[in-house]
Amino acid sequence: MVEAGCDEAGRGCLAGPVCAAAVILPADPGPILAGLLNDSKLLSAPMRQKLRKLIAETAISYGVAMVDAQTIDKVNILKASIKAMHLALSKLSPQPALILADGNSFYPYRGVSHLCIIRGDATYASVAAASVMAKTYRDDYMQQLHKEYPHYGWYHNKGYATSFHREAIAAYGISPYHRRSFRQLPQLRLDFTSRTCL
């Protein structure tokens, strides 16, 4: 049975898209890949990049997709995360007979059976591979956005709620890439009329 691991990155960020990946690995992905895979957040950036290359070379198929901040604001982060997973799954060939989704929430996809697995990225190689792909693709994207809005420090914080990022929001306002439905500053919930950095 063809199984696809699925995971997302960037769900808790203040800015940027949520990114998801789906990966189908061979039954034996090899000792190096199987031994190194783990939750991508626990790996160093150089190790994630090394694994990304190995996954791309080893996987039977993989797909990566992003859903932007405007859609996140419109439908909420959970629905946007699952939408990104569905988009990533749609890029797989062959299509899986079983989806292993990291976390505790997933919407049915094209009638394919699925399992939600909390900490699935620490249990299943295909989910860990999806975690790595989602994280590295999103990080690369945020580094590109950093060139457009360098004062937010996205090259380093990738849009997460670091003190530097929040201090920049307080100083400059929000960019078009910020999630307006998120609490950008502890004392303020920004809405669609809030100050925007242009």
Largest sheet: 5 strands, mixed
How much is the average pLDDT? Answer: 91
Strand content: 15-25%
Tell me the CATH superfamily of one domain: Ribonuclease H-like superfamily/Ribonuclease H
| Class by SSE composition | alpha/beta
Q: Which geometry do the CA atoms define? A: globular
Radius of gyration: 17 Å
Helix content: 25-40%
CATH fold category name of one domain: Nucleotidyltransferase, domain 5
Order of helices and strands: EEHHEHHEEHHH
What are the salient characteristics of this protein?
198 residues; alpha/beta; Nucleotidyltransferase, domain 5; five-stranded mixed β-sheet; 40% helix; disordered C terminus
Structure report:
The protein is of the alpha/beta class. The protein has a domain at 3-138: Ribonuclease H-like superfamily/Ribonuclease H (Nucleotidyltransferase, domain 5, 2-Layer Sandwich). It contains 7 helices and 5 strands. The chain has helices at 31-36, 45-58, 69-75, 77-90, 125-148, 154-157, 163-172; strands spanning 3-9, 18-24, 61-67, 98-102, 113-117. It has a 5-stranded mixed beta sheet with strand order 3-2-1-4-5, sandwiched between helices. A hairpin with an 8-residue loop joins β1 (3-9) and β2. α2 packs across α5 and α3 packs across α4. The longest helix has 24 residues, at 125-148. The model is unreliable at 188-198 (pLDDT under 50).
